[in-house]
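Q: How do we represent a protein-ligand complex in a form that can be generated token by token?
A: Start from the inputs.
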Amino acid sequence: MASRISLTRFLVEQQRVDGHIPSQLRLLLEVVARACKSISQAVNKGALGGVLGSADSENVQGEVQKKLDIIANEVLIEANEWGGHLAAMASEEMDSIYLVPNRYPQGEYLLLFDPLDGSSNIDVNVSIGTIFSVLKKPEGSPGVTEQDFLQAGAQQVAAGYCVYGPQTTLVLTVGDGVSMFTLDREQGSFVLTQENVRIPADTKEFAINMSNMRHWDEPVKRYIDECLQGKEGPRGKDFNMRWIASMVADVHRILTRGGVFMYPWDKREPNKPGKLRLMYEANPMSWLVEQAGGAATNGRQRILDIQPSQLHERVSVILGSKNEVDRITSYHTAL
Ligand code: AHM
Ligand code: MG
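Then emit the structure tokens for the protein with AHM bound:
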């Protein structure tokens, strides 16, 4: 039997043989993976662990927090604050950035995360996940401010997610392709199960919340309308639809078999660019998708090129199979 490659070994080899990652970044990724294992345990216990249901609080975006949102956030902070690899963290569940306390050594990285994405699926036992993005603290700046986090997604040095579904799978890029690791619960370690993940350029599957159709902009309406016309329409083929309402699970499907995912701007709240957050949802997912040969835009611009102006900034998201994303983008730019 071929020897199994653990995440630890994979990262050590990336550091040693390929020189892709410095030791502090390797440590950071190991710690994030360890935190994901703990979150996976809590998710798995469900009602038995008393972790389901809402907490009596709202996050900065005015969304009611679930107990597991808060637990996952705490697990990530506690795991990461003392190791010496981080300068600060930012999370969907925290109003402002979290500085590593003075009693611990300071590192050179910034970690951003959505601790538990797909919160509406927690209590109904549908896949959810943790999304993370790693940036380098700008050189020469003393201390850390929110400004240090406001870097375009193209500056990320690592990004990934862990999906808690029938299997717990960690998906990672450090800028050299995408690798997937499955949690072996008996051994307690993530094992490499797929390397060099590729998204087919063409697809017959789209993911969008169709209940918002009446609020969409013309280019999105046109694209979906053409898909729905199937073989008889301009696309000349039938399309299938999926919407899990957990971005992690929808993106995982796209990395596994292709497809296109959209959470576009819509007219419900015209001043909001979209529902999803740029820094800890769209950026890491866009980089993973690009690293697997796909594309990611807001309809007009590559997501990774967007210069953020706020930590919790929102963005319109269209990502997945390259030819479909290019088509949808061309429908926007043609106007
Ligand atoms: P969350 O981070 O609060 O869970 O919100 C993000 C989620 C995404 O995972 C998912 O794609 C989307 O919200 C689903 O939204 P909707 O319920 O409007 O379909
Ligand atoms: Mg989320």
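The chain has a mean pLDDT of 95. The chain is about 30% helix and 25% strand.
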